[in-house]
Write a structure and sequence with these properties.
Keywords: ATP-binding, Ligase, Nucleotide-binding. This protein is an alpha+beta fold. Helix content is 48%, strand content 12%. The longest helix is centred in the C-terminal third of the chain and has 21 residues, at 241-261.
Length: 364
Amino acid sequence: MRVRTVGVEEEFLLVSPAGRLSSVAPAVLDHAHAVEPATSEPGGHLEKELKREQIETSTHPCEDLRDLADQLRAGRAAADEAAQHAGARIAAVATAPGATTSVVFPEPRAERLGERFGVLAQEQLTCGCHVHVAVADDDEGVLVIDHLRRWAAVLLALTSNSPFWDGVDTGYASFRTQVWGRWPTSGPVAPFGDAATYHRVVADLVASGTILDQGMVYFDARLSARYPTVEVRVADVCLDVEDAVVQAALVRALADTAVRSRDDAPQPRTEQLRVAAWRAARTGMSADLLHPFTGRPARAATVVRTLLEHVSPALERSGDLDRVTARLDVVLAGGTGADAQRAWRRAGLDDAALLARARDRTLA
């Protein structure tokens, strides 16, 4: 049986040795593309993001998680090597610990976005982890999107890695989620039911004149406009490669479960999912989450094990169960990237030292 492919896009901050944001993305990309010109093939090269202070990597589609992990590490190393030629390094933190002044990338679409959305675009400097999972067609993709709805908050909690914003501890495990949630199409959406409905909703959003184009459809999970995949966008960029690998494995397992099970359980309301996402962003894995079937508070470990039980048959089929279980045990025992960042701050690390520690973990 052929295993469904999965790929990962990661966004990173560009920082100076002094721990300040570094607006050098154009120079980083120039160097990277001179060394290895970009191709039309999916994944494997550096790309721009909205701001000059960040960069994005991507993997090729993978069947084996070992290959995925190798590509993620190679992508991080290549991005850091290119950044060093511009006097910067990369850090896998989803928001900066210090001042967040940033500059829109110098290209027409980004500049139009900045003009239309004002301070929202000015303040938008966050880094996510996006998982692409292969689907047979758009109808299968919508089946996967609808199935993923109730689990998105758990996927977010497991990757929470943005406790700081503009020099303060926000009290959130994923403040990136709060910043990102200001975009008009972001977050959970109602179930679509079929591809025709999905495409009609997207067309109506574009026709409203509010968003620039289909690329600004920022649902938690969406049909990719470029590839035959569902793109799941809820996660913070992960401090550790293995957490990104597990995020991809869980997304793939949820996709397989959706296609095989044809689950008829009643769909939760979007209002419930928004509350679940807020709870996950607020406390990550350090306090109760909302149970995906009852909507009531439950221990984070209980909710994670409910997810694991739900997708265990799919993880067994792909050969991923042991790896995913072992890593989830590590997160349950030791916390997420947000917990690590706070521990470093409590130990007395300033912005520069914290980002240097994050850089080391990014490249481990």
